[in-house]
Amino acid sequence: MELFYWVVFGGLSLVVAGLELSKNSKDRITTSTAFNAFKNNYVLIYSLMMAGDWLQGPYVYFLYRQYGFDKGDIGRLFIAGFGSSMLFGTIVGSLADKQGRKRACLTYCITYILSCATKHSPQYKVLMIGRVLGGIATSLLFSAFESWLVAEHNKRNFDQQWLSLTFSKAIFFGNGLVAILSGLLGNVLTDTLGFGPVAPFDAAACFLAIGMAIILSSWTENYGDPSESKDLLTQFKGAAVAIASDEKIALLGAIQSLFEGSMYTFVFLWTPALSPNEEDIPHGFIFATFMLSSMLGSSIAARLLARVSPKVESYMQIVFAVSALSLFLPVITSFLVPPSNVKHGGSISFAGCIQILGFCAFEGCVGIFWPSIMKMRSQYIPEESRSTIMNFFRIPLNIFVCVVLYNVNAFPITVMFGMCSIFLFMASILQRRLESVAESHRTKSQDWTSMKERDPESEPLTD
Asked: Where does it primarily localize (predicted)?
């Protein structure tokens, strides 16, 4: 493996360690023993769930290519996953509000374990079924667990500021440390021990089974709106009305769709971008480096969320702008750096080095994004339909990714990176609008509170 990979990984490791060790009282929140036990339990389970997801990430594209499928075939498999997440995942995820968030989390474990099992077959139809199951699981992963956490946190009457601490810790470990270890473990299983590209999926199933056992033994059930009179269609209508009637929720959904759509497109693009001539790159190690960058981002987010200023609505504008620039680097290098037509066993070109640095910057933005968007969702999304609304957000996201992947052979890879960069810049603009609307709402609320103190019979101010 080339020295460049180790230099980047080592440099990022030193920065992350330095940030964590240099935390002062302003960067820490004093909490209770009961909350710490609750937080640690959730972080452990979330980390196991993410291990089940991260172990698969670097090897999905690689496994399909090993089975002999071309980029178009692989693109259709990815489309099946995102399409399933949009159609079936939205329904299954929304049932969490009515049938219980704990049940939904257990359903995630079972569905994803079955998806992992399908990876043993080189049959296209079996792999397609696996992608459908994986799409359903993904919707549950990014809605049911967060919904359970917020509801349980509020039910136990913990301080609202502590919620951001759980978010940042969960992302630091689940999307950071665990992701790094998953990448390295996948590399050992696949390359060092020679078990092949299916081994990480088997390991993922084991972690999911362990997490499922802990959920069964330690979690209590909670619900959104348990009303028996509300069927699924009524829940969908209620969620749609909430989004349409509150600009903050609508903006948050658009921002999330633009960012996550670009992020999932990047997941598909980074392998061919770094190996345009099918170079033998260390997928697991590169993935671990990306996750170390994400860990750095979550560490920065933890510091930001622990302070009153700057507000999350403000600094996320900068994060989206930086992420837009990061994914535009492949476009810039395509013009400034001449392409190489020589295959090198494990070597990387100068353009590849630049792109890896840019991709690391993007992953750093991803690390800041997750706890920050979770914080905003906890503030703006109503509790009774939290899972339903969060899965509504995923509909435009999945449509966006499906359209991009369907046309994966129609456009050069630089065009797709350029599209992602534009969408991320749009997210920055919408984030600025969200800050303005939220600030206006806070000002009106403060004015009404002040008026209420002077005149108890006064009516609330409306937008």
From this structure: membrane
